[in-house]
Design a protein that fits this description.
By secondary structure, this protein is α/β, with parallel strands linked by helices. The chain has helices at 16-32, 51-61, 79-89, 107-115, 139-156, 172-178, 189-199, 221-238; strands at 6-12, 38-45, 68-73, 94-98, 121-125, 132-135, 167-171, 204-208, 210-212.
Length: 244
């Protein structure tokens, strides 16, 4: 039996109404798959709801309190900052970060676990031949996503089909090294991490996952896209500073 430990980093912002149930789903899944040596690191990115109170309830749900770590700060800094903070606080041999809404099916955890040592980094892809997209996004979001992917490859030179899927997996030592060069806290932090990893010779592979669109998304497509594109040019300009 594999005794290595896995850390699951979950950044959250105003997710108090759903997060307890979603973490319970992860906990139950880990039990079914006999993945007992793990921790969940929930990072509150300056939420305005009662997440701290809910986090206390979540901790009480765990028979082993060391399997749940709540990291809290008051100012909203962005998903990238939350992921970086979670990785800094995570322990174990491997680290996954995943979205709080569970848009990516939790079955991706075991899918990664079976191949974890075949690459330094594994990224979930909705465009992989093995992917199953259960609920499509609206037409505008679909067109925007396609355009973002094309421009990401053109501007940065990265060849991955899906850099923005909210499920990425790392060998722990690799994750903790590359975040030391991370400078972006929001829209394009995923792309920046992949750029840092690629420039430093780490192996990166993608795999297909089951994905369901979060209809409750509060992100403005136009505003996010503009900021995303600006950060892509920043990444290209800053590549000389990404070497470890």
């Amino acid at each position: 039996m594999d005794k290595k430990k896995i850390g699951i980093v979950i950044p959250c912002y105003n997710e108090a109404s759903k997060i307890r149930d979603n973490i319970a789903k992860i906990r139950d899944y880990m039990k079914v798959e006999c993945l007992h040596d793990y921790e969940i690191v929930l990072v509150n990115d300056g939420s305005k709801d009662n997440i701290a109170e809910v986090a206390e309830q979540i901790k009480a749900d765990f028979a082993n309190p060391r399997q749940f770590n709540f990291v809290n700060y008051e100012q909203n800094r962005g998903k990238g900052y939350a992921v970086k903070t979670g990785i800094q606080n995570a322990t174990g041999d491997y680290i996954i970060f995943m979205d709080a809404d569970l848009s990516v099916s939790i079955t991706a955890i075991m899918k990664y676990w079976k191949v974890k040592d075949e690459a330094d980094i594994w990224i979930a892809s909705r465009r992989h031949p093995d992917a199953c997209v259960a609920v499509e996004t609206g037409l505008i979001r679909k067109i925007t996503s396609k355009g973002c992917n094309i421009l990401t490859r053109m501007i940065t030179g990265l060849k991955f089909e899906d850099t923005q899927c909210g499920f990425k997996c790392f060998k722990s030592d690799v994750a903790k090294k590359i975040i030391t060069k991370q400078t972006l806290d929001r829209w394009s932090f995923d792309v920046e991490l992949l750029m840092i990893a690629q420039l430093n010779g780490y192996t990166i592979k993608d795999f297909g996952i089951e994905w369901r669109n979060d209809a409750d998304s509060r992100v403005s497509v136009l505003d996010a896209s503009i900021k995303f594109f600006k950060e892509l040019f920043y990444i290209r300009k800053n590549r000389k500073n990404y070497y470890l």
